[in-house]
């Protein structure tokens, strides 16, 4: 069992990761170095098992892993400290960038940069398509899920029926993949009771929002929906797009692209693009509510899932359902890429920037540097 660590120390450890790690693939080893090798919060084996659990349930994988590790170290205070520590740097930066964006959006300087950022986000989406297909659609059956999801999304079918339909079909049509070695680790005791307490707190919070500000309530509901239908990383793109652009019409496609681009220049979880969307909708209170909402439900789920860790990670049915969902998310990213491409003002400059961005992404250049370089080039190209 992991040694007890104070919540403040957990917060500091994850704050370092959240403030310095960029990009999903790069954040995982950075988190492992900080919490396993440097601070010794958990063993490598427990880190691996926690990661396997968090990849099986909806929400931001590394945010949930921070909560999972914090839970093992100091119960509920530790889980909250892990969540807050990992998310605070990105939230504060996104809030500052959102304020700057809204105050400078009409200037030529801002318009030129945003023109370039649209192209970069499209390049990121296109590379994400390839990555999802390569990793999660290795067979023709998986690829059929991907193609069907793209077609259904473009036809106007909602994200909820697409994702849940994929999970249900995955149970019967897709192989579950190899079962992980559960080793000697143990599930978290008492986590189910803590999940119940947090579910009650969330219900009370939602009731308060409904009473004082229905718009904030709607914002929280939307972010909870995005949380429950995303499986980390760039899987958030189609789900958030469907919710804030198509369903709620809070922002247009161009603003959505610009917000997602800003999320790429901040460290920590990319799901905190929700802070930008919330700020556009309702200012600072909206940013706070959207940022809490994007992680609230999955926080409760990771607490409950920790109690059933071995059953979930070892379940062939869970892995088959997840395979269907991940293949489907790849298809929805394809559809969103097509939609976002129509929001770009195409010309030789945007075409050149797309080629350069794709080449840099293919060379595994850090996304943050690509976005910053594109912003600089845009001042001369547009």
Detailed description of the structure:
This protein has 382 residues and is mainly alpha-helical. Helix content is 79%, strand content 0%. The protein has helices at 7-20, 24-38, 44-56, 61-104, 108-136, 140-154, 159-173, 191-212, 214-229, 236-247, 253-264, 273-307, 309-313, 316-341, 348-362, 367-381. Helix 10 packs across helix 14 (316-341). The protein is globular and about 60 Å long. The N and C termini lie far apart (57 Å).
Keywords:
mainly alpha, single chain, 79% helix, 382 residues
Give a topology summary:
Elements: H1 7-20, H2 24-38, H3 44-56, H4 61-104, H5 108-136, H6 140-154, H7 159-173, H8 191-212, H9 214-229, H10 236-247, H11 253-264, H12 273-307, H13 309-313, H14 316-341, H15 348-362, H16 367-381
Helix pairs in contact: 1-2, 1-4, 3-4, 4-12, 5-11, 5-14, 5-15, 5-16, 6-7, 6-14, 7-14, 8-9, 8-12, 9-10, 9-12, 10-14, 15-16
Please tell me what the overall shape is. Answer: globular
- Which structural category fits the helices and strands? mainly alpha
Compute the number of strand runs. Answer: 0
Spans with pLDDT under 50 lasting ≥5 residues?
A: none
How would you spell out the order of helices and strands? HHHHHHHHHHHHHHHH
Helix content: over 70%
What is the residue-averaged pLDDT? 83
The biggest beta sheet reads: none
Strand content: under 5%
Through-space gap between termini = 57 Å
Q: Roughly how many Å is the radius of gyration?
A: 20 Å
How many DSSP H or I helices?
16
């Amino acid at each position: 069992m992991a040694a007890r660590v104070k919540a403040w120390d957990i917060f500091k450890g994850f704050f370092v990761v959240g403030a310095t790690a960029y990009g999903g693939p790069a954040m995982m080893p950075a988190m492992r170095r900080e919490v396993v090798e440097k601070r010794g919060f958990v063993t490598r084996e427990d880190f691996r098992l926690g990661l396997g659990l968090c990849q099986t349930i909806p929400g931001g994988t590394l945010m949930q892993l921070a909560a999972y590790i914090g839970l093992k170290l100091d119960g509920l205070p530790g889980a909250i400290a892990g969540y807050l520590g990992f998310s605070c740097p990105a939230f504060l930066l996104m809030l500052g960038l959102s304020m700057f964006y809204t105050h400078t959006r009409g200037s030529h300087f801002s318009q030129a940069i945003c023109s370039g950022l649209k192209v970069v986000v499209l390049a990121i989406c296109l590379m994400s398509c390839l990555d999802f297909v390569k990793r999660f659609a290795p067979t023709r059956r998986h690829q059929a899920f991907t193609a069907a999801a793209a077609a259904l999304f473009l036809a106007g079918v909602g994200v909820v029926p697409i994702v849940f339909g994929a999970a249900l079909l995955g149970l019967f049509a897709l192989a579950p993949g190899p079962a992980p070695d559960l080793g000697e680790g143990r599930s978290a005791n008492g986590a189910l009771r803590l999940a119940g307490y947090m579910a009650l707190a969330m219900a009370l919070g939602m009731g308060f929002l409904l009473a004082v500000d229905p718009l904030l309530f709607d914002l929280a509901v939307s972010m909870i929906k995005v949380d429950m239908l995303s499986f980390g990383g760039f899987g958030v793109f189609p789900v958030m797009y469907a919710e804030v652009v198509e369903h709620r019409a809070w922002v247009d496609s161009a603003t959505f692209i610009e917000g997602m681009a800003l999320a790429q220049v901040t460290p920590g979880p990319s799901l905190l693009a929700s802070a930008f969307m919330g700020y556009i909708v309702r200012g600072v209170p909206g940013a706070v509510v959207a940022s809490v909402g994007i992680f609230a439900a999955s926080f409760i789920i990771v607490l409950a899932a920790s109690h059933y860790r071995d059953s979930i990670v070892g379940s062939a049915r869970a892995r088959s359902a997840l395979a269907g969902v991940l293949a489907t998310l790849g298809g929805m990213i394809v559809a969103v890429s097509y939609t976002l491409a129509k929001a770009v003002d195409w010309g030789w400059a945007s075409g050149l920037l797309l080629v350069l961005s794709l080449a840099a992404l293919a060379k595994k250049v850090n996304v943050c540097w690509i976005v910053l370089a594109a912003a600089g080039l845009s001042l001369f190209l547009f």
